[in-house]
Input
Amino acid sequence: MSKILHSFILSISLMLTAGSCSGQQPSASVIPVPEETPTVLPGIEVLKLEGFEQLKGKRVGLITNPTGIDNSMQSTIDILAAAPEVKLTTLFAPEHGVRGNYTAGASVANETDPLTGVPVYSLHGANRKPSPAMLADIDVLVYDIQDIGCRSYTFISTMGLAMEAAAAAGKQFMVLDRPNPLGGLRVEGPLVDQGCTSFVSQYPIPYIYGLTPGELAVYLNDSGLLGSRKVDLTVIPMRGWRRDMTFVMTGMPWVPTSPHIPTPESALLYPATGIMGELDYVSIGVGYTLPFSLTGAPWIDSRALADAMTALNLPGLEFRPIYYRPYYAKFKDLTLGGIQIYVTSPATAPLSLLQFYIMQEIARLYPDHKAFTGVSQAKLNMFDKVCGSRAVRANFSRSYNVDNIMKLWTEQADSFRTATIPYHLYK
Output
């Protein structure tokens, strides 16, 4: 082992040990590489640079989708299928499928990958956790998916449940790490309450959790959130990523993480309007060309709402009056008035609270169109599940004022931010 590599490994070990509240180092191997270029290299790139050493001679199962690529946009599926001394035996499909050929929420089928001939097991259908039979032909289960840093996005639920299954079956688990597109400093929202657990709130973490997939995996494993048995976990870290980086700062290519997250900008705005979108009482741009970037309805006066939002003086945000006609989804073919959201400073903008400020101003301007009136119980339940707490809706609906949920939205987030510092793999 080179002196540079040895010293880097030692520094990572000391950092994790010194930061641990329990005095114990998080239970994951970390395979670093020397710093050379400013472009961020995801875990799959690092694995290649290490000659696939951690997978040689092993039967590999891979959980991935079209976002699992190297910086030349080659699929991790194809990379591992061609890797020397690595046997890719099984693929596991999250929401949207391994090649991205399923729509949002659609059940994914068990099938055979046409490009590699490798069998694909669905983790978004009848099964959301790999069964022992699915894991029978593997030694290590690898996870490589670009997430968007928001708890309600189902990929991290898939990761956690797969870790549980791997632990129960005595299989190794590896995360090929990727950036958190929102950066690693932002933590917002309450933890998931007991009774609100679902596939969009699988574990008690904040709505915006401020960790990379690899960091989150180590946290879930060490915190006992996967059950009584830990998984044999290895994280292959990125090179060059810093906690203050949003995705556009990484120099990496963006692949849509789902059909309505076509750009890094839409990933940034997903937590800003997505919870409100569960109510289906306004359009949030899904069905138009700016998903998660808009708020509109036939009864909204664009200028009035834009002026009201601007008057709040929310940091890092600007609002433009807009008229648009959705091509599908909510208010299809109707002309809507509304606002377009511009994030001028991702570091300071209150992203997840923005939708509550919008609902606050809509309730004030249009008392007959308050957020929770005339909404089905099923949609109210889904709103609670995405929030991870019934208390959010109960407190906010008292007077449709953001102040009523401010403590709930920030207090647990602040505690989580402190508690997860020992699990940071990047500065």
In short: Residues 3-19 form the longest helix (17 residues). Residues 1-25, 33-38 have pLDDT under 50 and may be disordered.
